[in-house]
Specification:
Shape: globular
Strand content: 15-25%
Radius of gyration: 21 Å
Distance between the termini: 42 Å
Bound molecules: pyridoxal-5'-phosphate
Low-confidence stretches: none
CATH class of the largest domain: Alpha Beta
Oligomer: single chain
Strand order of the largest sheet: 2-10-9-8-5-3-4
Helix content: 40-55%
Largest sheet: 7 strands, mixed
Structural class: alpha/beta
CATH superfamily of the largest domain: Type I PLP-dependent aspartate aminotransferase-like (Major domain)
Order of helices and strands: EHHEHEHEHEEEHEEEHHHHEEHEEHH
Number of domains: 2
CATH architecture of the largest domain: 3-Layer(aba) Sandwich
Length: 392
């Protein structure tokens, strides 16, 4: 039949949602329980504490049934009032989407513009903050890992720029494609709202998101006037779960309990970061090798900002990334990420976060190289060897 895929397991190399470990899948397949059942409450409370450890915070957390966009929206409506101004650091498609959401909610947006291939200049961030001597900017919004470009942002340097200029704005950080893959330190970096989602580093299905919230942000929440109901933290604090307005999605917590066990007990959070950085280096070694002979290149031109959870790969002029992705998917059952927004057709992405090991990465890289041969995309063959050398 049309669109039938070759036999064998699909290699899923998207940067999110990501592969779900079998034990997490099985744990989530749990019969319904009352979310007020004391047995469930014990699991729930332990999961909330575990999420705080992954966020590296001792402060507050609020959860939502909804994907990352829900937590984005929750962070705005709980902290801001109509006409407030936010400063958004441009990183790529997701920073632009967050800015668009702010505008739709009646928030004024200022941006620090950036070259998507080099990343935002922290000196420009500092200048934008210094210029705002009236402290009109109520929140600075950063995307810790821009999933569209494969670039990470040094959040600690943004915090340092805020401190150096004495700017009192809240710091909001999107950790959707970094949490549980790249080191993120909410309290140490003075992040006031950390936006996270279930479907990437936490290795769960899509559909639950959350915000780590500082005590300072909770104070600011008390005077925020943007309309809210489902997302209202004050409503949530009146409930036993101190979160969720409405039914608690219990299955997620059986999955999360197991995911936290894998992350914290079986592997260790710091080892999770090391594994991601090791696999990422292998992917970059392959792409740098292919780039000879007018082949595809790393989209990121700033090695200090390379992302260890996703690599965006720029096609040679005149070659369509989506055509290459279609060959990989239809002939070989390897699912690669596409280019987003203006990068559509120009870039493809290899997600290397979550439940992933060397054979999965090498299999994906080998198949990308095969697909390039089949699709007639110029490249220097032997990228897999370069990846093996990086791993060995
Ligand atoms: N922010 C980043 C960095 C993302 O990668 C994504 C999704 O990929 C989002 C926000 C939006 O999250 P969701 O698709 O879960 O609503």
């Amino acid at each position: 039949p049309k669109n039938a895929r070759p036999r064998g397991r699909q290699f899923f190399a998207n940067p999110g949602p990501t592969n779900i470990p079998d034990s997490v899948l099985l744990a989530g397949a749990h019969q319904t329980v009352d979310f007020n059942d004391p047995n469930f409450i014990a699991i729930y409370d332990a999961c909330v504490e575990g999420l705080k450890r992954v966020l590296k915070t001792k402060q507050n957390i609020f959860l939502y049934t909804g994907s990352g966009h829900a937590a984005w929206e929750a962070s705005f409506v709980n902290l801001l009032s109509p006409g407030d101004t936010v400063l958004i650091l441009e990183t790529g498609y997701f920073s632009l989407s967050w800015a668009k959401m702010a505008e739709d909610l009646g928030i004024e947006v200022r941006s620090v513009a950036a070259d998507w291939r080099r990343g935002v200049d922290i000196a420009a961030v500092r200048a934008a903050l210094a210029e705002d001597s009236a402290h009109v900017i109520k929140a600075v919004c950063v995307v810790h890992n821009e999933t569209a470009t494969g670039m990470a942002l040094p959040v600690a340097e943004v915090r340092a720029a805020m401190d150096a200029t004495g700017h009192p704005a809240l710091l909001l950080a999107d950790t959707i494609s970094s949490l549980g893959s790249l080191d993120f330190r909410m309290d140490e970096w003075g992040v006031d709202a950390a936006v996270g989602g279930s479907q990437k580093g936490l290795m769960l299905p899509t559909g639950m998101s959350f915000t780590g919230v500082s005590d300072k942000a909770l104070e600011a929440h008390k005077t925020s006037r943007l309309p809210k109901h489902y997302f209202n933290w004050t409503n949530m604090l009146t409930r036993r779960h101190k979160s969720f307005v409405g039914t608690v999605p219990v299955s997620f917590f059986y999955g999360l309990q197991e995911a936290l066990r894998l992350i914290e007990q079986e592997e260790g959070l710091e080892n999770v970061f090391t594994r991601h950085s090791r696999l990422a280096r292998a992917v970059r070694a392959a792409v740098q090798h292919w780039s000879g002979n007018n082949g595809p290149q790393l989209f990121c031109l700033n090695p200090a900002r390379y992302s260890d959870s996703v690599t965006a790969i720029m096609m040679p002029e005149g070659f369509d990334a989506d055509a290459l992705r279609a060959v990989a998917l239809q002939k070989f059952n390897v699912s690669l990420g596409g280019g987003l927004g203006p990068l559509g057709g120009k870039v493809f992405r290899i997600g290397h976060l979550g439940d992933l090991n060397e054979p999965m990465i090498l299999g994906t890289l080998a198949t990308v190289e095969l697909a390039m041969q089949v699709a007639g995309v110029p490249h220097t063959p032997g990228g897999v060897g370069a990846a093996i050398a990086a791993l060995a």
